[in-house]
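Quick one - inputs below.
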Amino acid sequence: MKKVIKATVSNIIVALFIFIFTIGGIFLCLGRDIKNNISLIDKITVVEAENKEEKVIEVDKITNYLSSYPSYGEKYATLEIDKIDLNKDVYFGDTYEILKNGVGHNAGSYFPSEGGSIVYLGHNTPDMFRRFSELEIGDIITVKTSYGTFNYKIYDMQVIDETDKDKLPIQREEEILMIYTCYPFNALGHTTNRYVVYSKLVSGEEA
Amino acid sequence: MKKLSYVLVVALMLVVFAPVSKAATVEESADKIYEVGKKYGMTDSDKVQLDRFLRENEVTEAQAEKLLEKVNEAATIMEAEGVTKYDDLSTAKKEELKDIANEAATELDVSLVFKTKTVEIYKNGENILTISSNNGTLAYTGSNMGTVIGVVSLTALIALAVVFKKTVRAN
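Output:
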């Protein structure tokens, strides 16, 4: 009996070591690849604007384009949704690193005030977009930038597949803010669905 | 022949006497490039980025024309190879395309860094844009805790199975 117990204990200890070294090995060797498998593009350092000279951004009255743009990875706005007590920083770009810090702004979409499609995205974590299920048509989303404050009213919500890029059309006929996150909201593991909130610009006040 | 000459003269006159407007030229350039590029997977999102890039970097008309020239060169290669996706090209042709891209970048005073799924554009040492390919899917914005839990659970199960088997054998 003693021999059996001794053998079992030593086997458990061996198993524990295998377990620890395996986990350590996976993250050491494949940690970056694991991230890359679920990230949009390679890591880009999130730019903190604190020690950088702040760009003065203005809206061209004729074209509605911005006079200059934030650098990729730079925080340039805040996203507020009072209904779900959300107040998060918005960064230009949507890399894995950016999404860890706040809301990402897809670089292939327009900026608030430019009169086109704006695509924001963020994680479905409790501190980010987990409470999107509580949003209703008519709720207001506010984007505050250095060049103005813009309010958008929700008009639709949809669950789409990750390949349904057509459901996030890029156009410049109407200013629409589309925000998406993974769905189901509390899914563990990889999910191929996205929950998209569609909202239209209802008011904008330039700084 | 007469008709062709007449058409050429009209086209030349339009080019020479057409009003030159910087904003219109940049948008036109982006439009023209998009017309060529969309056959090979260029999307509306790509066009927005291109348009923003041209405006932000104050690309001149001459530079924009050169860029379009390079785009057409690249398109010629794709057409000659009978493909619409970069990945379907041979290694040699991919390198040719990269060379063309680098020549275009030189015209615009930027440099390119090619990575596995991305192309980074640098100006004066600063990364000003990154173009990526994520296989046509929307970004992943879910919890990655599942991946960790999955890996940990699987390893734990394997470890326990080993222990159990050895214990049974010992008995």
